[in-house]
């Protein structure tokens, strides 16, 4: 059955591919993008795939833009928009961490609360939080992003428990590392403040994490999985993908009980 899906952060990466993928499956998609220039590029990409999207400009941090979430009617709300930054958590300027939390946690929660109220009123609906493998495991030198996604996981778990009595579903999708450009930009962000001559963390210590960029997956398989899960009537609360990501999460959670200091 065709559904109406509202997805944030559809201007690029997995969000863009998922918006188009859902439309190809026959669903009505309200695709929000952060900046006006992304409207044209997304419209062109959708046209090339032979589908139409209802594209709107929505900066999830902008209170006026957030009102659009209240105005539309939809069956599923996908909180996909996010930003990222890496660097040693013991040294990164806290204002940069605060900025990440403003988008990934506080604004994401504000958006989801609007959708939740609409769904509670009609006793139906689903909220999907785009988390990450970083929402369930620790990844050294990606602490700011990891912390924000751990917060998203906690929000999703609590919201799931609290909204069940209203017949509102809540779930997370936790992608592994996919080659969309997001991870590359996240690693580059630290160069705006990190100075090897001033910071105590050696650049060599961070080099290993950067190797992740050389082993990223092709995004289409994740897009296909997101389309499948978002549109499904019932599925697991957490969808970690690919299988390597799920295995890594389960192993890390088990190791937490054995870790010593």
From TrEMBL:
The keyword Oxidoreductase applies. This is Short-chain dehydrogenase/reductase. Keywords: Oxidoreductase. It comes from Pontibacillus salipaludis. PANTHER family: ALCOHOL DEHYDROGENASE. The lineage of its organism: Bacteria, Bacillati, Bacillota, Bacilli, Bacillales. The keyword Electron transport does not apply. Gene3D superfamilies: NAD(P)-binding Rossmann-like Domain. Belongs to the short-chain dehydrogenases/reductases (SDR) family. NCBIfam families: PRK09291.1.
